[in-house]
UniProtKB/TrEMBL annotation:
Residues 124-218 form the OmpR/PhoB-type domain. This is Response regulator transcription factor. Residues 124-218 bind DNA. Keywords: DNA-binding, Phosphoprotein, Transcription, Transcription regulation. PROSITE patterns: OMPR_PHOB (PS51755), RESPONSE_REGULATORY (PS50110). It comes from Variovorax rhizosphaerae. The modification 4-aspartylphosphate is found at D51. It holds the Pfam family Response_reg.
Amino acid sequence: MRALLVEDDEMIGRSLRQALEGAGWSVDWVRDGPLAQSALDDGDYTCVLLDLGLPGRDGAEVLRRARESGDATPVLVLTARGDIEDRIHVLDLGADDYLQKPFAFRELLARMRAIVRRRDGAAHSLIGSGALQLDLTTREVLQNGVREMLTAREFALLHALLERPGAILSREQLENRIYGWGEEVTSNAVDVLIHGMRRKIGPDAIRNVRGLGWRVAVPA
């Protein structure tokens, strides 16, 4: 899955990006408010990790503008500010959660999973329905109850499709969800991923719509 990390501290930003990538996330990292706003306008993110004390534009203002524009991307605020009024303010602006620095990385991952689940309308770790489901905690696909491990990019691709069952996602839309800035993407990268996934979950689970893209069926 693809995350936008907004953090101006070089050491924190570098270590968080490395840890998130190690946990299977594709991460775009920006260091100031205007760049964060531009990335949100242009990107398709699973969630945003947003610091408040940013140069150029405060994180709270970035959040306010994003929500006023209709952007519903889950936002987890990460900040050293501990005052209760700061927490209330960003939550009222539309933040999905708030985590005070310093924090344990395992807790950060758990909170990211939680806000993504809420966006997907799931109270538990499974999204999808019928014969095909995805476990956000274990990164496994369930096909008729049988679990199969996925690679990080297979997981990101299937997550994007299961978020919108029946909707056709183009090659570009899927690439945007799987790869971060600067990652080399070959012309057949999506095809290779889908070919591998069909071996795991069956040839009809992900369907190609010629010239348009791919989709998963709406459960009956």
